[in-house]
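User: Can you model how NAP sits in this protein?
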Amino acid sequence: MAGRLDGQVAIVTGGSRGIGRAIALALAGEGAAVVLAARATDVLAEAADLVRRAGGRAEPVVTELAEEASIRSLVRATQERFGRLDILVNNAGITHSARLEETRTEDLDRCWAVNARAPFILCREALPLLRRSEAGRIINISSVVGVKGYPLQSAYTASKHALRGMSIALAEELRGTKIRVHVICPGGVDTDMVGNVRPDIKKEELIAPDEIAELVLYLVTHRGNAVVDELHLRRATAAPWFG
Ligand SMILES: NC(=O)c1ccc[n+]([C@@H]2O[C@H](COP(=O)([O-])OP(=O)(O)OC[C@H]3O[C@@H](n4cnc5c(N)ncnc54)[C@H](OP(=O)(O)O)[C@@H]3O)[C@@H](O)[C@H]2O)c1
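Assistant: Here's the modeled complex, given as structure tokens:
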């Protein structure tokens, strides 16, 4: 059966696990070839195998998003392998939990580099390819902390506000082109990230990674005149994160 993304190519950063892997599987399930970017080679290879076993096309590209040269290599590898790019999902991210007074400059720099600087650079480097697409899409995964602020998350919060702000500015810059920029701001999702920070929260109270992937599919397949700039998701059943 024809997929809605047949012939298209997507980059998914952090595509090796968690939300990124769910997004990669969903895009590949609709026929897109997916370029998966992350650091851990074995986990990346497993995710690519998973996509292939499900009948999709996947290309793992080991990437350190904190390094500009590595980001450029990712775009170059995509161009060399597939010759095009239609969808860029800036999903990879890290968090850091500490009071601001106890947050070291290197922890702040690391959050900034991976969560905000890398998507900025990747958008810039990918735009020449995206401009050639009939319907280019950039999806940036910010967070509920890109809108609100929580204690113990000042470095993460600052980086996610920055990502959201950059996305809104870029969406305005690209008005009138075939490229659309979307931001998704989820609350707690059932991944390693939350498992490490808040192991006390029950899995059944968290958003499933597939729920984010379904929204990404909607955004990349929608062809009408309406543009969804931002999607905010909160957990339906839970008490507030810090309550
Ligand atoms: N989970 C949540 O509750 C939640 C809520 C709102 C927003 N988000 C956001 O959603 C995104 C995905 O989160 P997740 O929960 O799926 O996280 P996760 O399970 O920890 O996965 C993070 C992914 O990013 C990759 N990554 C991390 N640092 C990287 C680097 N320097 N270079 C390249 N890849 C890197 C990881 O692979 P390697 O470690 O192998 O590099 C992994 O594939 C993040 O931006 C996060 O901030 C998550």
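A couple of observations from the model: DSSP finds seven helices and seven strands in the chain. The longest helix spans residues 105-130.
User: Helpful, thanks.
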